[in-house]
Amino acid sequence: TDDDMFSSVFCENSKKLINIHLFALAAKYYSLSNLGVCTPLEDVLEALRGDNQGTTGIKTDEFMNNKKSHEVQVMSELVDNIANYCGVKQVIDVGSGKGYLSSFLSMQYNLKVYGIDSSNTNTNGARERNRKLKKHWRAYQNRGRANLKSQRLEKAKDRPVESEIKCKTISEKPLNNDSSLQSQDQVTIQDLVPCVFTQIATSETSKRPEVDLVTQTQSDESKHSEEVLAMLNVLPSDAVELFSSSQCNCGELCEEEKAQRKMASLKAKASKLSESNLYFPLTSCITAETELEDIITDLEDCVMVGLHTCGDLAANTLRIFTNKPEIKAVCNVGCCYHLLSEQFENQEECQEEVWGFPMCQYLKDRGWSCGRNARMSACLALERVAVGQMLPTETLFYRAVLQVIIEEIYGVTKSDRHVGKIFSKSSSFVDYVRKSLKKLELDDSKLPDSCIMDYYEKYKHRMNELEAFNMLKVVLAPCIEVLILLDRLCYLKEQDSIAWSGLVKLFDPVKSPRCYAVVALKKWSC
C-alpha cells in the first residue's frame, strides 16, 4: 500500500525525517499534477466551444508585463467561452485589483464587466489605467487588424478554391448588415451551447447535428463583420473619435472619406446593438454575506471570476456563487494561502463564523487543520526552484536572525506589525535590523552595531541548514496546496445546484505559481 511504501520516511519513535529521497517521492506522489484529478484546459475549452473556434486579435503583452499578460490571455479566453456557453454577457471580477483581467474581458470580448476590489487605491488605479488604454487603443486596433488579417490568410491557404470564392462573395456584401450581426448572437447562444454538461472530458461535438446551410451562411457573413468590428466595438462610444464629414470638400466623396464614414457608421451601429462592452471598477469589501444587488444595481445572469483572489476571498467567492441564482458559473484562481482563516487552527470551534478552511463537510467532520506554517509553505513555488530560480536564502537568513534578536533583546514573541520588504532597501545587515526595528516601533538605540553583528556571526555558519530546511518546505508545498484546492472542489461537489465542477491548470507554473483554477457550472434550472 501507499502507507507501507512511505512508512520509512520518518523515524517511528522520534518522528524525525530519516529518508529525504522517499520524502521527495512521497511529496511528488501526492501532488496535484500526479493525482489525476485535474481536467485539462483543452478539454474544457473544447466542450464549451463546440464547433466555434474563436480568434483573438490583440495580445496582452502590449500593455502588461510577461506574467500578467500570460495570466490574462489564458484566463480571459476561458471566461469568454464560459460566458458564451451560459448565454450571459455580464461578468463580475472579484478582487479585480488594477483591472487587468476586467478591462481585457470588456475590450477584447465585449463583455460587461464589474470589477470589485476592497482597495479604493486599486479602483482609482483601474480607472486611470483604463483611461490610458482608451488613449492608446488605436495602436492596439491596428495591430489587432493585422493579426486577424494574418489569421485569415493562413486559413485561406488550406481552403479549396470554392471556399475562397465564397469568402470573396461574402466580403463584398455590405458590412453594416444588422441581420448578420444578430445572427452571430443567435448562432453563439443556440448552436454553440451543448444541452447537457455532464462529462466535460467527453467531446459533445460528435453528438450534435450540423448547422443548416442558411444559418451557416449567416454566420459566415457575420464573422467578416465581426472581424472588422472587433477593434471598434471594444470601448464605450465616447472612447473612439468619430470622423467629421467636413474634412473633405470635394463634390464627390473620396475613397478615404467613404471608408471613414463606413467605420463611423459601424461604430454607431455596434453601440446601439450592444452596451455590454463596458467596464465598471467598484470599491467594496466582499464577504460570504455580501449582497451583490447592493453593489450592482443591474445584476443579471452572470459569471463570477477571480484572478488570484487573496486568502478568504477565494472561499467567499465560491460561497456567493453557490448562494446566488444569478451567478451561472465561476472561475476562480486563489492565492495567499497563509492569509486563510482556519476553523480548527486554535482548537476553538465557532459555529457562527465563516472560515476560509475547511469548506467541505468531509474535512469539517474531521476537524482538519493545516496551521499557518503549512499554509505559508503552500505559497512556495517548486517549479520555479526546479528551473534554477533559487530561494532568497540571504533574505530568509536576515529575517530569521532578526526574530532571534527581537525575542532575546526585546522579549517580543508576537506582534501585529509587519517588517515588509526591507531587505532590498537595506545596505547591510545592521541597516536591515535598524529599519525593521523602526517599523516594529521598537527602540533601537539600546542596541549597538557590534551587538547586531555578533548575532550575525553567531548564526552565519547555519545558513546552509536554513537553505536545506526551506528546500524541504518547497518540496512539500504542492501537497499542502492540494489539500486546500481539493477542499474547495469537494465543497462544490456537495452542492446540489452544480452541474459540473473541476480543477483546471490554467497557467505555466514557472510564470505563475498559483496556476490552478476552480471552475464550476450550475444546472440549467438553477
From TrEMBL:
Looking up InterPro entries in the UniProt record yields:
Methyltranfer_dom (IPR025714), METTL25 (IPR052220), SAM-dependent_MTases_sf (IPR029063)
Annotated SUPFAM superfamilies: S-adenosyl-L-methionine-dependent methyltransferases
Stretches assigned to the Methyltransferase domain = 67-343
The record's listing under Gene3D superfamilies reads: Vaccinia Virus protein VP39 (3.40.50.150)
Q: What is the protein named?
A: MET25 protein
| Organism this protein belongs to | Galbula dea
Taxonomic classification, please? Eukaryota, Metazoa, Chordata, Craniata, Vertebrata
